[in-house]
Amino acid sequence: MEKRHADGCAISVRQRPGKPTQGFLRIGGLTVPCSLGRSGITALKREGDGATPLATLRPLGVLFRRDRRRNGIGPVRLPSLPVLPGFGWCDAPEDPNYNRPVPLPFRASHEKMRRSDRLYDVCIVLDWNTLPRRRYRGSAIFLHIAHEGLQPTEGCIAVCPRVMARILPLLTRRTRFVVMR
C-alpha cells in the first residue's frame, strides 16, 4: 500500500521480486521500473556498500547539465543548480566536507558530477546522511538517470530520462521517497 503523508506526496520505492538491484517507483497512479544499488536495499547503510538505504528520503534540490539540456529542466518546484565543470561531491568519510558538494580539483576522494555517461544530466539530491552527517553512513544518495537496461547503481535510485521528465515537475520539498523492501 502506498503511504501518504499529510504534508505532501509520498513516492514509494520497492524492490522487484527476484531482482534486488531493480525496483518499482510509484507516484500516484504511475508505477515505473527503477534501478537500485548493486547490493539491493539495506537498513544498515555504510559508505561504499553499494546499497540503497531503507529509509524515507526528502528531495533537497535538482542538479542538471545545462549544456545537455538546451531547454533547461522545465518548471520545477525544487531549488535547481546547473552542474558546471569543476563540480564534485566528497565521498571521503574522514574529510570535513564528507557528503557535500566540493570544487574540483579536490584532495580527498570525490565523485565528479559532470559525467560523460549522462547519469547525472538531471540529478535529484536526496537528504540521506545530511543533517547530521555521520562518518561512513554513506554519501550522495540521488535520484538520477539510469544506465541502459536498468543496471545497478552504487546505492542511488535511477529512472529512465522519460520518467525523470515526467516526475520532476511533481517534486516539492514536502515530497517523500519511501524506500521499502
What does this structure look like?
The chain is mainly beta. The chain is built from one helix and 15 strands. A five-stranded mixed sheet has the order 3-2-1-15-6, with no helix packed on it. A hairpin with a 2-residue loop joins strand 1 and strand 2. The longest helix is centred in the last third of the chain and has 7 residues. The mean pLDDT is 94.
Number of strands: 15
Estimated structural class: mainly beta
Please tally the helical runs, counting DSSP H or I stretches of 4 or more residues. 1
Mean pLDDT: 94
The helical percent reads: under 10%
Series of secondary-structure elements, N-terminal to C-terminal: EEEEEEEEEEEEEEHE
Distance linking N and C termini = 12 Å
- Uncertain ranges: none
Rg, nearest Å: 15 Å
Strand content: 35-45%
Strand order of the largest sheet: 3-2-1-15-6
Biggest beta-sheet profile? 5 strands, mixed
> What is the molecular shape?
globular
Topology, pairings included?
Blueprint: E1 10-16, E2 19-27, E3 30-35, E4 41-42, E5 52-53, E6 56-57, E7 59-64, E8 80-82, E9 87-90, E10 101-103, E11 110-112, E12 122-126, E13 142-145, E14 157-159, H1 161-167, E15 176-180
Parallel strand pairs: 1-15, 4-5, 7-8, 13-14
Antiparallel strand pairs: 1-2, 2-3, 6-15, 7-12, 9-10, 9-11, 12-13
Quick description:
This protein is mainly beta and 181 residues long.
Q: Which key features would you list for this structure?
A:
35% strand; 181 residues; five-stranded mixed sheet; single chain; mainly beta
